[in-house]
Amino acid sequence: MSYAIIGFGKIGQALAHAFARKNIDVTVAGRRPPEALQVQAQAIGPTVVARSLRDALEADTIILAVPFGEHPEVAKALPSWKGKTLIDAMNTLVSPEELDGLPSSAFVAKAFAGARLVKGFNHLIAATLATDPAAGGGHRVVFLSSDDEDAIAPVAALAKQLGFAPVKLGKLNEGGALVQARDGVWGQLIFQDLFKKAQ
């Protein structure tokens, strides 16, 4: 399984730290050319490699960590997203009208036709996401939701591999609504730094 993070701002870099901590290879790409990201990528760890957007999109699993308004441009980079697992780590405070009344991730899914979309890794602030998720005899929780039941399993496996405790919240319009903004208000589980005791 190959992984890429699209967007190398605070959240993208925090996620890169999570991969580096476990020595898992990950490609990173952003608006700037790969040469401009390489120094930051190398500073995070040897398993983090900056590449062009085109090269990064060859990964099997892609974490979308760009500002919400930029996702349509990323979506245009591939003619089809069939066979790709897309993890939506973005947040937005745009109005429901601008999202056609859909949960934000369901709106994103329309742009990435064919992708298996999972909402995840978006409810923690970057500084928290970048730190070791193992603490206090437990593991930091990450919430996952998707309208594709089969898509959650590999993302949950990745979360565990990164040291997190995945908690499935169900479909995007149910559990997914708990970790997004609606009517300018954050969902109940957003920014909740929770731990699950090791078993």
From TrEMBL:
<protein>
    <submittedName>
        <fullName>NADPH-dependent F420 reductase</fullName>
    </submittedName>
</protein>
<dbReference type="InterPro" id="IPR036291">
    <property type="entry name" value="NAD(P)-bd_dom_sf"/>
</dbReference>
<dbReference type="InterPro" id="IPR051267">
    <property type="entry name" value="STEAP_metalloreductase"/>
</dbReference>
<dbReference type="InterPro" id="IPR028939">
    <property type="entry name" value="P5C_Rdtase_cat_N"/>
</dbReference>
<dbReference type="GO" id="GO:0008823">
    <property type="term" value="F:cupric reductase (NADH) activity"/>
</dbReference>
<dbReference type="GO" id="GO:0015677">
    <property type="term" value="P:copper ion import"/>
</dbReference>
<dbReference type="GO" id="GO:0052851">
    <property type="term" value="F:ferric-chelate reductase (NADPH) activity"/>
</dbReference>
<dbReference type="GO" id="GO:0005886">
    <property type="term" value="C:plasma membrane"/>
</dbReference>
<dbReference type="Pfam" id="PF03807">
    <property type="entry name" value="F420_oxidored"/>
</dbReference>
<keyword id="KW-0560">Oxidoreductase</keyword>
<feature type="domain" description="Pyrroline-5-carboxylate reductase catalytic N-terminal">
    <location>
        <begin position="3"/>
        <end position="91"/>
    </location>
</feature>
